[in-house]
């Protein structure tokens, strides 16, 4: 049974509320004065009919108006009501672990502020204040993620004619601050990689070398099992990624980022060397990379922390672990590797994505550039030599 019902009768709009087990009425007189109070009727379906068919018409007649027929009620949607519907629809539209993460963000960072509010009642000013409060605790990019969930909920409500506008359209999204560290693509040089490997040991040395030799995502690597490796065919099956679970210390694997991310990749020599060393450490376990307790990683966070320590020890500029993936792609492309092959290794949907991300970071020395020119020249159309002609005649 609805707890908050909008009901239009003639020129008046009533709100019928269930409170303390009884029906309450909330409405405005023709003079603009607001009236609120209990009907003293218990909150039952039968009494709801009595309110609509008797109590409200009596009030209307008491104001000097002629009673009219019963009009249809209008459901009042709170943000929570519609968010439930929104996430239910998304079950068939996005991956399960992505949906779980979005619901978690909604419950933790949106619901505490707005869940009980009516969709139409949340103003842009309140959205801006909400963003500013979050920015006191979280990075700009993180708040953008929370905002995008709320934006999508309102966008769906707008397309279903439940709101007249999306309040977030009038609020500027948090901008990334230029003076803070970002995840910008900044590949490691070969010299830097040599220093990093020199100062790494154990599974971290193997992890770093394997990542820079495959371009795999950190979450994909920690979810990799020995059963995914085929040394004979030199193939690696990438079928899952490690995702965060709501339950503490629960290992949870999900499908890869996109359909194209679910892939088989070639095992280069550097990757094979790293795996063979790692096999000596964890070959009898299910997962290739495990923590000091001989259990799978809950996430790749601790790997990132250890990587930061290695960078500091190596005297290499601090960059996220993810830049090893960027290093794999940018170095191969700059040295003339087949862009289609690189794109497949990375698990991109198509080559255009790979080019969009990496071509602006490619820098070639003259020797490499001249070799490419000579190679391309072989395919160019040939023209007859017309040097003997006097073109000034």
Characterise this structure.
- The chain has 393 residues and is an alpha+beta fold.
- The chain folds into three domains: 4-75; 79-170, Tyrosine recombinase, N-terminal domain (DNA polymerase, domain 1); 190-342, hpI Integrase, Chain A.
- Helices cover 45% and strands 12% of the residues.
- It is built from 15 helices and ten strands.
- The strands form three sheets. The protein has a five-stranded antiparallel beta sheet, covered by helices on one side.
- Helix 8 (202-214) crosses helix 12.
- It is elongated and about 95 Å long.
- It starts with a strand and ends in a 16-residue tail after the last helix.
Q: pLDDT below 50 for ≥5 consecutive residues: which ranges?
A: 178-183
Q: Indicate the structural class.
A: alpha+beta
Helix content: 40-55%
Count of DSSP-assigned helices: 15
Strand content: 5-15%
H/E topology pattern: EEEEHEHHHHHHHHEEEEEHHHHHH
Query: Would you identify the CATH architecture of the largest domain?
Result: Orthogonal Bundle
Shape: elongated
Radius of gyration: 31 Å
Q: Report the major sheet.
A: 5 strands, antiparallel
Find the CATH superfamily of the largest domain. Answer: Intergrase catalytic core
CATH T-level fold name of the largest domain: hpI Integrase, Chain A
The average pLDDT score comes to: 84
Q: What is the CATH C-level name of the largest domain?
A: Mainly Alpha
> Cα distance, first to last residue?
97 Å
Number of strands: 10
């Amino acid at each position: 049974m609805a707890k908050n019902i909008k009901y239009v009768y003639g020129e008046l709009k009533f709100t019928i509320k269930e409170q303390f087990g009884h029906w309450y009425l909330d409405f405005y007189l023709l003079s603009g004065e607001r009236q609120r109070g209990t009907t003293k009727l218990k909150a039952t379906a039968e009494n709801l009919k009595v309110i609509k068919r008797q109590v409200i018409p009596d009030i209307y007649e008491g104001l000097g108006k002629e009673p009219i027929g019963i009009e249809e009620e209008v459901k009042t949607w709170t943000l929570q009501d519609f968010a439930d519907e929104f996430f239910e629809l998304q079950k068939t539209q996005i991956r399960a672990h992505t949906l779980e993460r979005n619901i978690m963000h909604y419950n933790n960072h949106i619901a505490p502020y707005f869940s009980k509010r009516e969709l139409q009642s949340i103003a842009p000013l309140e959205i801006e204040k909400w963003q500013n409060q979050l920015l006191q605790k979280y990075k700009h990019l993180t708040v953008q993620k929370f905002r995008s969930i709320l934006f999508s909920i309102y966008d769906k409500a707008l397309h279903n004619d439940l709101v007249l506008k999306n309040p977030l359209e009038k609020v500027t999204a948090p901008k990334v601050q230029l003076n803070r560290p970002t995840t910008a693509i900044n590949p490691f040089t070969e010299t830097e990689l040599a220093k990093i490997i020199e100062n790494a040991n154990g599974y971290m040395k193997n992890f770093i070398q394997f990542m820079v030799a495959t371009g795999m995502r950190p979450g994909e690597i920690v979810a990799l099992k020995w059963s995914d490796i085929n040394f004979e065919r030199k193939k690696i099956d990438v079928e899952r990624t490690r995702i965060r679970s709501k339950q503490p210390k629960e290992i949870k694997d999900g499908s890869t980022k996109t359909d194209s991310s679910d892939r088989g990749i070639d095992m280069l020599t550097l990757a094979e060397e790293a795996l063979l060393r790692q096999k000596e450490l964890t070959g009898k376990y299910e997962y290739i990379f495990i923590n000091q307790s001989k259990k799978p990683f809950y996430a790749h966070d601790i790997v990132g922390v250890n990587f930061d320590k290695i960078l500091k020890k190596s005297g290499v500029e601090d960059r996220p672990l993810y830049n090893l993936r960027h290093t794999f792609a940018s170095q191969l492309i700059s040295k003339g590797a087949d862009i289609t092959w690189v794109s497949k290794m990375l698990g991109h949907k198509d080559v255009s994505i790979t080019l969009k991300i990496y071509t602006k970071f490619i820098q070639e020395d003259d020797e490499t550039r001249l070799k490419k020119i000579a190679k391309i020249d072989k395919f160019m159309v040939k023209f007859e030599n017309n040097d003997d002609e006097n073109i000034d005649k």
